[in-house]
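Sorry, any thoughts here?
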Amino acid sequence: MKLFGQVLVTMLVILDPPGNTPIFLSVTRRLTDKERHRAAYLAVSTAFLVITIFAIGGQTILDYLHVSVPALQGAGGLLLLLVALQLLYGKGHEESYEAASPEQRTSIAMVPLGTPLLAGPGAIVTTIVYFQQTESFVEWMSVLAGMASALAVALFFLRFSGLVTKLVRPAGVILLARVAGMLLAAVAVQMIANSVTAFARAA
């Protein structure tokens, strides 16, 4: 039970459901309510799948590809930075967006929402570390349950993020998009800085 609590608290801090809600609203602002709900489920499902894969064989995968954790951080930071710049300055591709099917429009839930926003380097590395420390099946299930519970909380925030839209109105969502863009850019730059620092220490 103690291990479950540790994993739950750690993952909640990393996932930061309240902090990711404005970003989710900004990225999905052109979706309908139904599509936004589907995007929330798809984002969390994608994050759960990615984290589970790395939990089972994450270190093996990274070693096989000769990819270090700092490199993973840097890649995630660059991807998030591109999304942040689009939120700040880009208007998107409205024509192609309108012509896209609902499935194509909600695909943004997988990237960048599912990964690397939710299942980012921090969540992946934390999962790998906790699973490497398990010594029994019960402990393994405790880690898995803690991870799933944290993602369930994230799903709750994303699923009911539409309530924020009703409160702040369309103009408020646009403002949230700009603010979220700045916050996301800061997160991305920090990830890149951490990556560079880790490379410098390893050199």
